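Re: Re: ligand-bound prediction request (bumping)

Still looking for help on this. To restate: I need the protein modeled with pyridoxal-5'-phosphate bound, output as structure tokens. Inputs repeated here so nobody has to scroll up.
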Amino acid sequence: MHEAMMGTSNPMYLESDTSGLLSKLRNLAMNLWWTWHPEVVAIFRDLDPDVWRDVNHNPILLLQQLTEQQLIERAREGAIEARINEAAHRLGTYLKGDDAWARPRASKLRVWPVAYFSFEFGLHESLPTYAGGLGVLAGDHLKSASDLGVPIVGIGLLYTEGYFHQRLDADGWQNEEYAPIDKSRLPIEPVYGLDGKRLMVDVPIVGRSPKIQVWKAMVGRSELYLLDSNVPENCKEDRQLTGRLYEADPTTRIRQEIVLGIGGIRTLAAMHKMPAIVHCNEGHSAFALLEWIRLHMVWEGVGFEKSRDHVGRRAIFTTHTPIPAGHDYFSPDLFREHLGYLQRDLGLSARDLFGLGRINPDDPSEPFCMTVLTLKIAHRSNGVSALHGRVSRNMWRPLWGMRSEQEVPIGHVTNGVHVPSWIAPAMYQLLERHLGVGWTDHMEALLTRERLARISDEELWEAHQISKNRLIGFTRRRLEAQAQYRGEPADRIEEARQRLDPNALTIGFARRFASYKRATLLFHDPDRLARIVGNDERPVQILFAGKSHPANEIGKQYIQKLVAMAADPRFKGRIVFVENYDMGVGRHLVQGVDIWLNNPLKPLEASGTSGQKVVLNGGLNLSVLDGWWAEAYDGSNGFAIGYGGYHPDQEEQSRRDARHLYEALENEVIPTFYERDDRGIPHRWLEKVRWSIQTLGWRFSADRMVLDYFTELYLPAAGAASCDTRSFRALGEK
Ligand SMILES: *Cc1c(COP(=O)(O)O)cnc(C)c1O
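Reply:
Sorry for the wait, this slipped through. Here it is.
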């Protein structure tokens, strides 16, 4: 595939060889690079806008649905051909990576890259290998690493049924639908071993050795290997191992973690791609460290302690939540059944092996915790915001003999988002006009007051309005489809088509329905909310979306409650629920809303990233001072709910937060949004938007995040000298 993509395409050369044109299209579809290049997205869309929508933005499916003849005709008629040639040329140049900043600074990582292990990778809605924020973060990490030239390979699982599709029934109750994926419609290719046969690795599952096959997806320059147990050689039970993401059953869970961790290391070894560093994104992949220790003992003929130290220096662990349920615990029996064999292989007593996952190794009843295992082995661990770093240090103090918080060796790297993946085309083009082509590569240098001042309020407002109109069109189509599916009468369906007002203040709230995120906080005082939302002079509309984990009944009750409350006539249809939150729904929302609402119960939101996605789209955050917002908010770059304190009584805390939320809306958000000049432009609002872009755009981007990992963790862990990032900044200043 590589060779073809690096071919000699020249944008000036009008393609006459049609098979060349088709193979270029296929190459573009097969590298997820297209997902963050709006001009390539536009090519697929323009080939057939209706089919593009029908196939849920899956370019491989699009190419399968249209005949070669149709594709060629469309490309010719619509003058898309030159754009295809241009895009293929750009991809080829990108893949060569001559100008990638980190590459010459990557030291030995150029030969032995970082292996980034994650249970989920969210790259695009058409690749169902993610459930939520953790996956999106992993996907954004691979994309930014690719852009910067940080050598990285991702290791994850290919789920036969992915995560579920959400549909609400007439009572607002969430139903889950699982559809088997068709691998021929995904941008993945089988991986072959050195013997030319399909690469298979074994994993140890209670005395059996099921085969795992390996697929490769390309994320720009980053490779992502996806492991899949669904091969005919395996028994039915093993074939289903990689069936669904986040199964609640602990037996399935421990086996999936064996496939990811142990299977992942074995895959890298089989490909002769042993990494310099393993980065565990969450504890799910911690068995990778045990397998690496085991292999190092075999290869180097050293004992456990030496090998543990070798691996520990090269391991990085990122923890993502202070919620206990977010950490995997396995009963001693389940652990013994599955990993007891390591006692022999690692030469450890039962106490010492089990003790790797226990705070107190001498307590045989303590379950085996994957977070503890990773914290004990990896020499470098971090939380995902400054506040979460502190919370994590306190949480895991017992592991370090109750040392004081400051002495617990857990740092932080605050999360960020991959801007080119989340920014709306209109905003992207506006910034390109004022900051120059390729501006997303140099945000640190370019998002300055002087440069942003070149953009007039009128232009900024117009660009945001374009995205907002797209969001409203999208939402109306979704609401119409939802109403049709539920068999609602014709007048209700017609109503769905008319919902929402492009001039109203639009608030978005979309996230998993985990209780601590408190999706229903806004409804704390329905009368007060009705006065806010129902005001016809200054209307407010609110878009909700989000899934509840299938096993989380309380989350489903929250959704049901929310949908019922939203139907209260006093809200005049201005509160809507968009079903089946995924990256596509998320993209429309963050691009089009004026306000992104975030009201978790402090301090339980480790970072949160959805609010970071609105920044470059010209939206503003309204958030509790938790997670990333605790370090981001400066008094002017958005809005705060409350003052950052928290109360031990959760009920009391929620009462206070609700009151502060209403006050912020009534006294700050709504008046500022509706303060207009005679041409309808809200200058004071746009001043905040510009300031938000300036102060947050770079700091909460995935480029900044990956750069931090690269200089502060990856290079030191690889035993290399760290590098100075001033040259990176200077690039953009040229
Ligand atoms: C960004 C994103 C998230 C993360 O949301 P937070 O609750 O802010 O962490 C979850 N799901 C999807 C689909 C996203 O795009």
